[in-house]
Amino acid sequence: MRQFPLEMHQMAPGRVVEWRLRSTAGPAAPDTGGTGDAPRGVPADAAGRRASFNQDKHFTVAEESRGADDPVASWIAVTFEVKGVLDERALTRSLLAFVRRHEVLRCEFRRLAGELACEPIAAAELALDVVPVADFDSSEALRGFLVDRFKRSIDTLSWPLFTMGAVLREDSTTVYLAFDHIVCDGLSMPIVVHEVQNGYEALCRGEEIDLPPAPSYLDFAEEQRRRYLSIADDDERLGYWKSFMARGGGEFFPRFPLELGVEPDRMYPIVNEASPLLDAAEAEVFEKACRVVDGKPFMGVLAAVAVCLREAGGPGVYRGFMPVSERGRAGWANSVGWFVNTMPIEFDASPGRDFTQVMAAVRAGFGEMMEHIDVPFVRAWQLLAPAEFAARSWPYPVNFFSYIDIRKCPGAERHEDWRPTSHVWSARANGACSWFQRDADGLHMNSIYVDTAAARRTMDDFQEALRSTVREIARHGSFRRPVALTAPRRPLGASRNDAAPYAPSALRRS
């Protein structure tokens, strides 16, 4: 399972149906395309439970941008394959069980007395209606429909906050689900696939769905707010953040160190790209090289990123943001929600330091970071950078690194059969974000960045340098040589992939 733009998905055409969620406490919801509020089964005066800090900030940005007629939009989507003739009734039951199981998916969000309430609709009140959509005879037309559908139907301010559908063929089906970020994160996508597929297969065998416990994300949010809502800017738990800011000239956000050609206070259309960095065999050797110097694969990738940024003109000390999953701390491994805390990390990657030394610095920096992950990012942001917190976006291009080993996610042992893919999209940006995924086929990179000529040149050179660096580590267990960005410059917009078009090897069979 890997993450890449939906537009790059090699999906066979077919007949599209969708499952529309509604509350049986009210009339059936019309297809508003995400442009208005659907009928709800929740009393208007319900006090509700409180949203998490991540959810509150996300919803606030959506409110403010809508009010300024400057909408901010994004979605996270997943697709997977069902072999053979689809049992539509079984899939409907599995999808409904999935939605009922995860309380956050049943929530509507409303602003009450300044706080964001998330009131879940009772599981028993939910129903799904199967709606025929259209027949598509080309993959291009199908992808265009899905991209447009996700953009229209995912709306932070409207319920429901996700869409579900499938592309039916005679001998296979591609199931798709797309979510607003307010109800899930990237690690929720493997959980979606695992639960819907296992539920479907059990029902097809005539069995009941049997899944391990999945505590509610709303309980997580409630505990988080109880622990951190009352802290002040002089709380000692903010010491790590304060020291990080002090070493960065007082700035809360670590700047992306390369030229992207952006103007202050301006958002841009995006480029969304993906490419392979290492194949399966190379990734195994890369991991061994990292273990030899007492590091983990993600540390090796981060070390390579730091060295490449430095060689491209960035500083010797790497400073960046790194999302950290909070699922493992209290049994949330099977839960859908936004279990992510974003933390700053800093380490020395100065010229002259070899692979072993940089890896030791990464390990130390990561260890220091993990000792201070208790304070939620949004709360630290609000307390330590209130002026930036009031804005609708991060103030300038921010250095951001994310790594997921999909092989450790629920259901990974079945990914060869299910062929899942994940996709992220954002309407606009003012910087660059990169996500790295390790799966059974190797190491992969997905980047979203501003669509400027300078950013295209910068990211093209950076990706070429990074691919070369991780391969040098795999082959020689070291950086081996200075990482100079000397790859021949391709015309803007030309493919930077080793193989074109980029499509996961498993997807090429569809």
TrEMBL record:
InterPro entries: CAT-like_dom_sf (IPR023213), Condensation_dom (IPR001242). Transmembrane segments: none annotated. Residues 25-45, 486-510 are annotated as: Disordered. Residues 73-378 form the Condensation domain. Pfam families: Condensation. This is Condensation domain-containing protein. The lineage of its organism: Bacteria, Bacillati, Actinomycetota, Actinomycetes, Kitasatosporales.
